[in-house]
Amino acid sequence: MKTSDHNLTFLADMVRWLGEQLGQVIVALEGQRTLDLVEELRHLAKACRAGDAAARQNLRAAVARLTPTDAYDMAMAFTTYFELVNLAEEDYRARLLRNRRAQTDAPEPVRESIDAALAELKRRGTSAPDLQRLLDDLSIELVFTAHPTESKRRTVLTKLQRIKWLLWRDPRPPSAGAPVYDAETTLSIRQEIAALWLTDRSRTQQPLVTDEVKTGLWYFDATLWSVLPQLQSDLEGALAKHYPDARVPRRWLTFGSWMGATGTGIPTSRPR
User: How far apart are CA 215 and CA 154, in angstroms?
Assistant: First the structure.
């Protein structure tokens, strides 16, 4: 089996395993009937996408029969499932990148890295002065928005992050096969999924500007403070390797915010 096949098997196995954990949570909290209804709708939807006209009619009829309580449970089930699928895909991508970084004896730079970008510029004959001009003009601004499609409550974001951390208790690369979790970790993941299921997704009040800002700052605390120094280190290391006389750019990455505003970005200090 090719490495790419192993990787795809890993992702499929992870999605399947998380779906099984969600199924057990649904049975524990809502009963077997709710899970059976989820599975019925899921199978009908798959058949419908495959072009089965009868399944399309049966799916419409099944949805029309849902009580308000059933409809809520179905919405929760599929929302939670796709959140777990997104986690599995992020986990898979992170494992691939970590595995690439670990291969320090590889003759080529890690694909899609700053090292690879600078190596390509050097291969194409970009001179040191030309590169310096590029670095001096380099300016990337990442803007935080309060778009309604990204309106997850911080409580939900935190629970999803805890599941992500638990998945990393077996940090093997995809080529090594699907992760195997002990009983304690499996129980912890299931408990976090249960907490996610029981968390109210809707807001009782319209978010204030301060709420939007707190959500934006959550990403700094949860991710950016640890990622940005590594990004700066990667740039400095790649420049030292390919263009040792180049001046490292300062304040090349900034942040802005449209939260609670009309579109004027507010840059922050450089990520050092």
Answer: 6
Q: What is the DSSP string of 111-147?
A: TTSHHHHHHHHHHTT--HHHHHHHHHH--EEEEE---
Contact 241, 110 (CB under 8 A): no
Fill in the DSSP letter of residue 257: E
22 CB burial (10 A radius; 0-12, 13-18, 19+): buried
Class of residue 193 by CB neighbours under 10 A (exposed 0-12, middle 13-18, buried 19+) = buried
* One domain, residues 19 and 59: yes
User: Is 267 within the bounds of a domain?
Assistant: yes
Are 259 and 166 members of one domain? no
> pLDDT band at 269, cuts 50/70/90?
very low
Quick: pLDDT tens for 25-71: 999 999 999 999 999 999 999 999 999 999 999 999 999 999 999 99
Structure tokens that stand for 191 in this block: 């408990």
The highest-confidence range among 143-147, 156-160, 235-239, by mean pLDDT, is: 235-239
Distances (CA, A) of 221 to 158, 161, 218: 11, 12, 5
How far is C-alpha 113 from the chain's CA centre?
18
Domain that holds residue 269: 121-151+207-272
Q: What is the length of the chain?
A: 272
